[in-house]
Amino acid sequence: MAKTIALPMWFVAALVFLSAWALLFKILLPGLRWIFKKREELFVREISRRLNLTFPAIQFAGKRAVVERLLSDPDVMQAIDESARELKIPPGEVARIAEGYAREIVPSFHAYVYYLCGRRLGIFLSRLLYRVRVGFVDEDGLAMIRPQSSVVFLMNHRSNMDYLILGYLTMNRTALSFAVGEWARVWPIKPLVKAMGAYFVRRHSGDVLYRRVLASYVQYVTRGGLVQAVYPEGKLSRDGKLHDPKVGILDYMLRGFDPGGERDVVFVPVGINYDRVLEDRTLLSEGDPAAPKGRRHAFLTTLSFLGRAFWLMARGGWHRCGYAIACFGQPVSMKDYAKTLGLDLRKLSKDERRLPLQNLARVLFQRVGQNVPTSPVSLVASIFSKDPGRLYSITEIETRVRDLMTLVERNGGHVYIPRKDRGYTVQVGLRMLTLRHIVLKEEGGFRASPKESKILRYYADSISHLAGER
Q1: Alpha-carbon Rg for the chain in angstroms
Q2: How far apart are CA 263 and CA 222, in angstroms?
Q3: What are phi and psi of 392, to 5 degrees?
Q4: Selection from 224, 211, 122 nearest residue 166 by Cα
Q5: Whole-Å CA distances, 298 to 2, 153, 227, 267, 285
Q6: pLDDT tens readout for residues 120-174
Q7: Strand 323-328 relative to strand 264-274: parallel, antiparallel, unpaired?
Q8: φ, ψ at 218 (rounded to 5°)
């Protein structure tokens, strides 16, 4: 016999909520993740076939698995015990802190995001803002890289556009994992760069536990063959010059390197230069105590630049920001380097490793410096910065630029000549500088603006090491 049962409303509401939760999190979301994973696997096969790419297995290791691998690393476990004793808190609490660091560092690479979102965004922005060119590629050296090698692109750091430009130029050859700083930890940049395989680095953290977790991750992906891109200087150049390389990231990569093992570590030096660095005035202002600073000022400066750019586009007066040029130099095999010096970093203590790592960093970064290309603006700016008050005729500028090109080539640098026309190179450089009122056009010639000496020097210093000024 049927009976009616009365249930309280709170019970019915709880029942509906739990049913909806079970349907969503136990059936719908796992099903969607499975479908997405299968579609991504098919996409990876297709992109691998079409571009002849080989992805290392570590590229698709789940984030949870990598985090657990880092927390079980003996060095990390030792750091957890040391921190617990030092801070006088339970090891479990310190382990949760270490897990937070690991989750912050470890990316979650998705081929869809990298090759659909990242590719389209990189192509769109790079071409919108610059004429992107490759100045030099050591094709023979790149072809000699052994298949069982962990490739690391070492690069000078001129602009935050470096990430997009290098990714854009290498997208048909590999998927890069960048080491990015704190600037990328804000929404919506953070989820995008994590999905593209970038890992976060706290540049000035003195936390031993954090450093152990970071070192463990870098060692893990290097052993796994992940292709990485790092900036040995550690930060953007504030004055346009190259600065001494840091050894921390190299130490993480190489402290467990086996010179006689199957896997090599190969460093590819990359030099990049721009006719216009989007952040140039913001970077220069950091050295001026009176200049406004902070994220708000940087955001407003960027917004102002974008506003002017779109206004010029609407009027048909947009010339982009000139050339963005990259050169890929001769790779350096760590196996060959270690064999030549009889070096095995595994047998050295932290203090003993410092000197050989510093020597290696200097060798590698010297090659990066040699591959920084000359851009039209850097060439023309070098002429005006030597005598800012002087009035130069166009003929005199062309003559001095040709002499500077010869000097750079003699010092082993790469000179980029648009359209293979030296006269056009000068025209491009002058046009960019006069449009920005850094160089003023006067009757009878050109003169540097008295108000813009710092920014003129900034662009000249990008190639000063190739002109024998360092």
Answers
A1: 26
A2: 9
A3: -105, 135
A4: 122
A5: 72, 28, 31, 33, 10
A6: 788 888 888 999 999 999 999 988 888 888 999 999 999 988 988 998 888 877 8
A7: antiparallel
A8: -65, -40
332 Cβ contact list (under 8 Å, min separation 6): 266, 267, 269, 363, 364, 367
Q: Which two tokens stand for residue 284?
A: 């220069």
Residue 150 backbone phi and psi in degrees, to 5: -95, 115
Pair 446, 391: CB distance under 8 Å:
yes
The total of other beta-carbon atoms located within 10 Å of residue 49's CB is 9
Strand pairing partners for 200?
180
pTM of this structure: 0.85
Compute the half-sphere exposure of residue 407: CA atoms within 13 Å on the CB side of its CA: 15
3-class SS letters over 63-118: HHHHHHHHHCCHHHHHHHHHHHHHHCCCHHHHHHHHHHHHHHHCCCCCHHHHHHHH
Largest CA distance in the chain: 109
CATH of domain 376-463: 1.10.10
With beta carbons less than 8 A apart as the criterion, state whether 104 and 200 touch. yes
Q: Are 165 and 325 in contact (CB under 8 A)?
A: no
* Nearest to 271, CA basis, from 434, 99, 431, 154: 154
- Residue 200 backbone phi and psi in degrees, to 5: -85, 145
Element (H, E) at 208: helix 208-223
Question: pLDDT band for position 376 (50/70/90)?
Answer: very high
**Cβ atoms of 257 and 265 closer than 8 Å:** yes
Supply φ then ψ for residue 64, to 5 degrees: -60, -40
Q: CA-to-CA distance for 7 and 262, rounded, in angstroms?
A: 68
Burial (0-12, 13-18, 19+ Cβ within 10 Å), 274: buried
CA angle 441, 443, 447 (to 5 degrees): 40
Those residues with Cβ within 8 angstroms of residue 354's Cβ, 6 or more apart along the chain or in another chain: 247
Q: Which residue has the higher pLDDT, 425 or 317?
A: 425
Residue extents of the structural domains in the chain? 376-463
Helix axes 63-71, 208-223, angle to 10 degrees: 120
Short-list 122, 329, 110, CA closest to 198: 110
In 255-327, alpha helices (H)? 280-285, 295-315
Distance of alpha carbon 331 from alpha carbon 317, whole angstroms: 41
pLDDT tens digit sequence for 336-370: 999 999 999 999 998 899 999 999 999 999 999 99
CB 209, CB 216: distance < 8 Å: no
Nearest Cα residue to 265 out of 276, 254, 255, 275: 254
